[in-house]
Design goal:
Elements: H1 3-15, H2 21-28, H3 30-40, E1 45-48, E2 58-62, H4 64-67, H5 69-87, H6 91-111, E3 116-117, E4 126-127, H7 135-156, E5 157-159, H8 165-183, H9 190-197, H10 200-211, E6 214-216, H11 217-223
Antiparallel strand pairs: 1-2, 3-4, 5-6
Helix pairs in contact: 1-2, 1-6, 1-7, 2-6, 2-10, 3-9, 5-6, 8-10
Bound molecules: zinc ion.
Residues 31-32, 67, 104, 108 line the site of zinc ion.
Length: 224
Amino acid sequence: MFIGHFGVAFAAKKAAPRVSLGALFAAAQFADLLWPTLVLLGIEEVRVQPGVTVVTPLDFVSYPYSHSLVLLVVWGAAFGGAYVALRRARPSAGLAIALLVVSHWFLDVLMHRPDMPLTPLPGSTRVGLGLWNSLPASLAVEFAVFAGGVAVYLGATRARARRSIAAWTLVVTLAMIFLASTFGPPPPSAAAVAWSAEAMWLLVAWGWWADRSRSADAASRTDG
Ligand SMILES: [Zn+2]
Protein backbone atom coordinates (compact mmCIF):
# COMPACT_ATOMS: atom_id res chain seq x y z
CA MET A 1 0.00 0.00 0.00
CA PHE A 2 1.19 3.51 -0.64
CA ILE A 3 -1.13 6.48 -0.17
CA GLY A 4 -3.46 4.51 2.12
CA HIS A 5 -0.74 4.68 4.80
CA PHE A 6 -0.71 8.46 4.45
CA GLY A 7 -4.52 8.47 4.67
CA VAL A 8 -4.43 6.70 8.04
CA ALA A 9 -1.76 9.15 9.24
CA PHE A 10 -3.88 12.15 8.16
CA ALA A 11 -6.88 10.69 10.03
CA ALA A 12 -4.81 10.14 13.20
CA LYS A 13 -4.52 13.92 13.55
CA LYS A 14 -8.04 13.90 14.96
CA ALA A 15 -7.03 11.44 17.71
CA ALA A 16 -3.65 13.10 18.36
CA PRO A 17 -4.11 16.78 17.46
CA ARG A 18 -0.86 17.92 19.06
CA VAL A 19 1.32 15.46 17.17
CA SER A 20 2.75 16.90 13.94
CA LEU A 21 1.61 15.35 10.69
CA GLY A 22 5.33 14.72 10.04
CA ALA A 23 5.52 12.41 13.07
CA LEU A 24 2.24 10.74 12.09
CA PHE A 25 3.61 10.13 8.56
CA ALA A 26 6.84 8.74 10.02
CA ALA A 27 4.84 6.37 12.24
CA ALA A 28 2.44 5.09 9.56
CA GLN A 29 5.36 4.68 7.13
CA PHE A 30 7.95 3.54 9.68
CA ALA A 31 8.21 0.15 7.94
CA ASP A 32 8.76 1.74 4.52
CA LEU A 33 11.27 4.25 5.93
CA LEU A 34 13.35 1.46 7.47
CA TRP A 35 13.00 -0.91 4.53
CA PRO A 36 15.04 0.78 1.73
CA THR A 37 18.06 1.24 3.98
CA LEU A 38 17.95 -2.43 4.99
CA VAL A 39 17.66 -3.37 1.30
CA LEU A 40 20.66 -1.18 0.39
CA LEU A 41 22.65 -2.77 3.23
CA GLY A 42 21.78 -6.23 1.91
CA ILE A 43 19.90 -7.16 5.10
CA GLU A 44 16.50 -7.36 3.40
CA GLU A 45 15.80 -8.35 -0.21
CA VAL A 46 13.46 -7.22 -2.99
CA ARG A 47 13.45 -8.23 -6.66
CA VAL A 48 11.90 -6.51 -9.64
CA GLN A 49 9.79 -9.13 -11.37
CA PRO A 50 7.13 -7.66 -13.69
CA GLY A 51 3.92 -9.68 -13.49
CA VAL A 52 4.42 -10.91 -9.93
CA THR A 53 1.22 -8.96 -9.14
CA VAL A 54 -0.98 -6.91 -11.45
CA VAL A 55 -0.25 -3.63 -9.67
CA THR A 56 3.35 -3.86 -8.47
CA PRO A 57 6.33 -5.60 -10.11
CA LEU A 58 8.08 -5.92 -6.74
CA ASP A 59 8.77 -9.37 -5.30
CA PHE A 60 9.38 -8.88 -1.58
CA VAL A 61 11.73 -11.81 -1.04
CA SER A 62 12.58 -11.09 2.60
CA TYR A 63 11.85 -8.20 4.96
CA PRO A 64 11.66 -9.63 8.48
CA TYR A 65 12.98 -6.54 10.30
CA SER A 66 10.91 -3.85 8.61
CA HIS A 67 7.70 -5.76 7.85
CA SER A 68 7.04 -8.52 10.41
CA LEU A 69 4.08 -8.04 12.74
CA VAL A 70 6.11 -8.83 15.86
CA LEU A 71 8.85 -6.30 15.10
CA LEU A 72 6.39 -3.61 14.04
CA VAL A 73 4.77 -3.96 17.48
CA VAL A 74 8.25 -3.56 19.00
CA TRP A 75 9.14 -0.57 16.74
CA GLY A 76 5.75 0.98 17.50
CA ALA A 77 6.23 0.69 21.26
CA ALA A 78 9.77 2.10 20.94
CA PHE A 79 8.73 5.01 18.68
CA GLY A 80 5.65 5.85 20.79
CA GLY A 81 7.64 5.59 24.04
CA ALA A 82 10.51 7.71 22.72
CA TYR A 83 8.07 10.34 21.44
CA VAL A 84 6.35 10.62 24.86
CA ALA A 85 9.70 10.80 26.67
CA LEU A 86 11.40 13.30 24.33
CA ARG A 87 8.41 15.54 23.64
CA ARG A 88 6.90 15.16 27.12
CA ALA A 89 3.71 14.30 25.28
CA ARG A 90 0.66 12.59 26.67
CA PRO A 91 0.62 8.78 26.70
CA SER A 92 -2.33 8.96 24.27
CA ALA A 93 -0.03 10.61 21.69
CA GLY A 94 2.49 7.78 22.13
CA LEU A 95 -0.29 5.23 21.78
CA ALA A 96 -1.50 6.84 18.54
CA ILE A 97 2.05 6.68 17.14
CA ALA A 98 2.48 3.03 18.19
CA LEU A 99 -0.85 2.04 16.63
CA LEU A 100 0.07 3.83 13.39
CA VAL A 101 3.35 1.91 13.17
CA VAL A 102 1.45 -1.39 13.58
CA SER A 103 -1.33 -0.28 11.18
CA HIS A 104 1.25 -0.46 8.37
CA TRP A 105 1.33 -4.26 8.66
CA PHE A 106 -2.44 -4.70 8.43
CA LEU A 107 -2.79 -2.36 5.45
CA ASP A 108 0.09 -4.08 3.66
CA VAL A 109 -1.46 -7.50 4.36
CA LEU A 110 -4.56 -6.31 2.53
CA MET A 111 -2.59 -5.55 -0.66
CA HIS A 112 0.39 -7.93 -0.70
CA ARG A 113 0.66 -11.52 -1.84
CA PRO A 114 1.25 -13.84 1.16
CA ASP A 115 4.71 -12.36 1.79
CA MET A 116 4.09 -10.43 5.05
CA PRO A 117 5.84 -12.30 7.91
CA LEU A 118 4.28 -12.66 11.35
CA THR A 119 7.65 -12.93 13.10
CA PRO A 120 11.23 -12.07 12.07
CA LEU A 121 12.28 -15.71 12.47
CA PRO A 122 13.30 -17.73 9.40
CA GLY A 123 10.39 -19.79 8.09
CA SER A 124 7.79 -17.52 9.68
CA THR A 125 4.21 -17.81 8.46
CA ARG A 126 3.61 -15.19 5.77
CA VAL A 127 0.20 -13.73 5.02
CA GLY A 128 -1.36 -11.46 2.43
CA LEU A 129 -4.81 -11.05 0.92
CA GLY A 130 -3.45 -10.11 -2.51
CA LEU A 131 -5.59 -7.12 -3.46
CA TRP A 132 -2.68 -6.09 -5.72
CA ASN A 133 -3.92 -8.73 -8.14
CA SER A 134 -6.80 -6.40 -9.02
CA LEU A 135 -6.01 -2.91 -10.34
CA PRO A 136 -9.55 -1.50 -9.85
CA ALA A 137 -9.80 -2.90 -6.29
CA SER A 138 -6.32 -1.59 -5.42
CA LEU A 139 -7.07 1.90 -6.74
CA ALA A 140 -10.45 1.94 -4.97
CA VAL A 141 -9.03 0.93 -1.59
CA GLU A 142 -5.97 3.23 -1.79
CA PHE A 143 -7.99 6.28 -2.80
CA ALA A 144 -10.87 5.56 -0.39
CA VAL A 145 -8.52 5.32 2.61
CA PHE A 146 -6.48 8.33 1.41
CA ALA A 147 -9.46 10.58 0.67
CA GLY A 148 -11.21 9.54 3.89
CA GLY A 149 -8.10 10.33 5.91
CA VAL A 150 -7.55 13.70 4.23
CA ALA A 151 -11.22 14.59 4.89
CA VAL A 152 -10.83 13.74 8.59
CA TYR A 153 -7.63 15.84 8.73
CA LEU A 154 -9.26 18.84 7.07
CA GLY A 155 -12.19 18.53 9.47
CA ALA A 156 -9.92 18.33 12.52
CA THR A 157 -7.72 21.30 11.55
CA ARG A 158 -8.17 24.74 10.08
CA ALA A 159 -5.94 26.86 7.90
CA ARG A 160 -3.79 29.37 9.77
CA ALA A 161 -3.14 31.40 6.65
CA ARG A 162 -5.95 32.22 4.24
CA ARG A 163 -5.05 29.17 2.24
CA SER A 164 -2.89 26.27 3.35
CA ILE A 165 -1.18 25.66 0.00
CA ALA A 166 1.47 23.45 1.61
CA ALA A 167 -1.19 20.96 2.71
CA TRP A 168 -3.08 20.93 -0.58
CA THR A 169 0.05 20.57 -2.72
CA LEU A 170 1.12 17.71 -0.44
CA VAL A 171 -2.19 15.90 -1.01
CA VAL A 172 -1.96 16.35 -4.80
CA THR A 173 1.73 15.34 -4.86
CA LEU A 174 1.03 12.12 -2.94
CA ALA A 175 -1.75 11.21 -5.36
CA MET A 176 0.53 11.94 -8.37
CA ILE A 177 3.43 9.88 -6.97
CA PHE A 178 1.03 7.00 -6.37
CA LEU A 179 -0.39 7.15 -9.90
CA ALA A 180 3.08 7.50 -11.46
CA SER A 181 4.41 4.47 -9.58
CA THR A 182 1.30 2.43 -10.38
CA PHE A 183 1.10 3.23 -14.09
CA GLY A 184 4.78 3.96 -14.82
CA PRO A 185 7.32 1.45 -16.16
CA PRO A 186 8.85 -1.06 -13.72
CA PRO A 187 11.98 0.22 -11.96
CA PRO A 188 15.30 -0.90 -13.50
CA SER A 189 16.71 -2.59 -10.39
CA ALA A 190 16.18 -3.34 -6.72
CA ALA A 191 18.74 -0.67 -5.85
CA ALA A 192 16.76 1.88 -7.87
CA VAL A 193 13.62 0.87 -5.95
CA ALA A 194 15.40 1.33 -2.64
CA TRP A 195 17.00 4.66 -3.53
CA SER A 196 13.70 6.13 -4.75
CA ALA A 197 11.96 4.79 -1.63
CA GLU A 198 14.40 6.86 0.45
CA ALA A 199 12.52 9.90 -0.89
CA MET A 200 9.85 8.95 1.67
CA TRP A 201 11.89 11.00 4.16
CA LEU A 202 11.14 14.11 2.09
CA LEU A 203 7.41 13.37 2.36
CA VAL A 204 7.75 13.14 6.16
CA ALA A 205 9.44 16.56 6.15
CA TRP A 206 6.75 17.92 3.85
CA GLY A 207 4.07 16.58 6.24
CA TRP A 208 5.73 18.41 9.14
CA TRP A 209 5.97 21.62 7.07
CA ALA A 210 2.40 21.43 5.70
CA ASP A 211 0.99 20.78 9.17
CA ARG A 212 2.42 24.10 10.36
CA SER A 213 0.06 25.89 7.99
CA ARG A 214 -2.93 24.40 9.80
CA SER A 215 -3.95 24.36 13.46
CA ALA A 216 -5.82 21.60 15.23
CA ASP A 217 -8.98 22.96 16.85
CA ALA A 218 -8.96 20.46 19.69
CA ALA A 219 -5.33 21.27 20.40
CA SER A 220 -5.86 25.01 20.61
CA ARG A 221 -8.81 24.46 22.95
CA THR A 222 -6.86 22.31 25.40
CA ASP A 223 -3.46 23.99 25.09
CA GLY A 224 -4.81 27.16 26.75
ZN1 LIG B 1 5.20 -1.46 3.54
